[in-house]
Amino acid sequence: MTRAITAGVDGSPESLAAAGWAAREAALRGLPLRLVHAWLWQPLDVPIAQDREAEARRAQALLDEAEAEVRRLHPDVLVTTRLVSDTPVPALLEAAESAEMLVLGSRGHGALLGFLLGSYGQQVIAASARPVVAVRARRDDETGAAGARAGEIVVGQQGGREESEAVLGFAFEEAAARGVGVRAVRAWSLPSLYAYSPGSLALADEAGGLEPFERKALADALAPWRERYPDVPVTEHVELGSGGQVLLSVATGAGLVVVGRRVGNAPFGPRIGSVAHAVLHHAPGPVAVVPHE
After folding, report:
1. Topology of the domain covering 4-135
2. How many other CB atoms are found less than 10 A from the CB of residue 124?
3. Residues 69-81: pLDDT tens digits?
4. In the chain, where are the structural domains located?
5. How many other C-beta atoms are found inside a 10 Å radius of the C-beta of residue 213?
6. Which residues pair with 155 in a beta bridge?
């Protein structure tokens, strides 16, 4: 079954930017686009007239307007729409299950807004089994003059080859579809007393020190993807610092920043992770959060 690129819309500038980004992605990948809007009739306990049918028509009109705009800009993309009778979080998570990726509107430099009021956006990103891309409407005064080479895919890599597989795979697939390069970023920090085992420190010594050890780990993780995508240029970036800070320092001008989110049972429910959280809130462009084991 062909998976569609799915975008959540609500009429806000952020969600319309997400729909436009999703349409371009669908065109690049030769995939269909599905626009989803969640609307659930919840009558208010107030002494005023409430018209369920009128509200339903407004919800459908919002979806129709988004569809018309996407079709106008991307006439070759197969577009379908779905009005879901549910609240946003379960509606989006259900839509994501059968999607290639889910695309949402993000305000940037703050919490996700619009279709994702309050903490809804973070809930969806933290719980989705599929990659989620957050897109925000750009202001006219924003430029991409510094940082990443314009349009390239910036991806954060951590851990070993298996842990990086889903994140790097997504980044290289994006780069190949767009005809751009990948900038693979690995951040590292000086170990605390308990951070490294004697075995790992021995491996670092064999590599010639901590930074060469980190460079070798990044090169090893990239090796199978370089072989699979020989036409994708790769820039390796290893830097001392926190993952979020290092990624954000090179994110300006990137076509997409890709970060991972570990799948597991956290004691307080699903979490995005500190690196993804920082990049989602402060990156100037679209951010993809890819779940991995």
Report:
1. Rossmann fold (3.40.50)
2. 27
3. 999 999 999 999 9
4. 4-135, 153-292
5. 20
6. 184, 258
